[in-house]
Each structure stands twice: as structure tokens, then as C-alpha cells.
Amino acid sequence: MRQVARASTWPPLNAASASAGDLHIVDVSGGASGLARKAGISPSGLSRYLAGGEPSRRVLVALADGVRVDWLAKGTGPMRDSDAARLPGSTLRLLPFLTQHKAELTASVPPASHDFTAQAFCYKWLNDNGLNSTTLTVMQVRGDGMSPTLRRGDTVLIDMHAREIEDGRIYVLRDSGNLLIRRLQIEAGNSIRALADNPQHREFARDAAEIDIVGRVVWRGSLL
Length: 224
What we know:
The protein is of the alpha+beta class.
């Protein structure tokens, strides 16, 4: 049986849209503080809205970074304009790339200058593998911190709803504005050890409450 530990999380803006969208707008803005700055509100104000408070129309529009305002406010309709424009009968879903403001060399995505903003996956394949397209985001591995498991240039799928730490699983973490891919190990005293599969990279340990989980890596694509 896998051990499970609690990490820090952000609650959704509304119950109906409790999926990757709320987490996505926080993550693509460089974390909660980055989103607060972009929306022109205080971090405490953002926390209140994420906990279920009612934002003004101006704040709501500012918070809707990459998602439709009506979806963010009510949880109805498509999450993104690209979702609304799907071809009839298509089985493809566009999953957004996870980006960041600072590049981290061991396993990360470069800043927003990335040529791609989304990648298509077959939703039937996702469903057959127990994956929900509304909770997934895509990331490209940079560096060799998780080699040989994840190699430079690999594409990984991240389930942003899977934020509880399961012993031995691989997660994307946010650390001082950077994104890290690490294998997490649960230790005594509610401590979490972040391991790099490449022995040339250092491991570190922190209290579970101090680990900022973006999501769990659930799939990788790699060239042979």
C-alpha cells in the first residue's frame, strides 16, 4: 500500500470548476503571488477569491488568464476558446503547456517564449487510461536531473489534480518560482525527500507542508 502525505494546495475559485483550470491560471502566472500582481490585487485578496469569495468583474476578467470568464465564474461551458472551436466529431483535446517565468536547468520548461502553447491528445485514450483531460497539462523536460527515467526533450503529462504525495511517485514541484521534476519519498516525521534519479544531482528533504506540488507526472513521451 502506498503512503500518502499532504502537501500545500490552493482551493478552487468555485466548486463547479474544481479542475486544472483554476490551478492552471495560478501556475502559468508564476504562482499565486504572480497571479495577484497580474490581477492587481493583494495576495490575501486572491486567497479570499480562491476560497470562494466573489470577485468584481474587473478582477474576474484579470484572473481569467487563458480560460473563459463564464467558465471561471460559473463552471459552465468550455474552459478555453480553443475547446469551443473543436471540429465536430474530433477525439482530440488540446492540453495546455505548463510554463514559468524562470527556467530551471535540471527539469523544467523555458519561459513563455516556448513555440507551443498546447498539444493534442486523444480523449478516448486518456479516458481508457483513467486520465481526465480537464486536469492535465503538458511539460517538456529540460536537463538530465531525472535521467534515465525522464530524458532531456521528453514530453510529460501532469495531472494537476493529483497533489497528494504518494511514496515513490514523480511530481512537478514549484520552488522559489522554478519548476522541478523530482521523485518524492515519504520519511518519518512528516518529512519528504525529493530525489533526482540522476545520482549527479543532489537530493533534499523538507516538511510535507513546505512542498508546493503542481501535480503528478502520469505519462511521458520519448524518442527512441
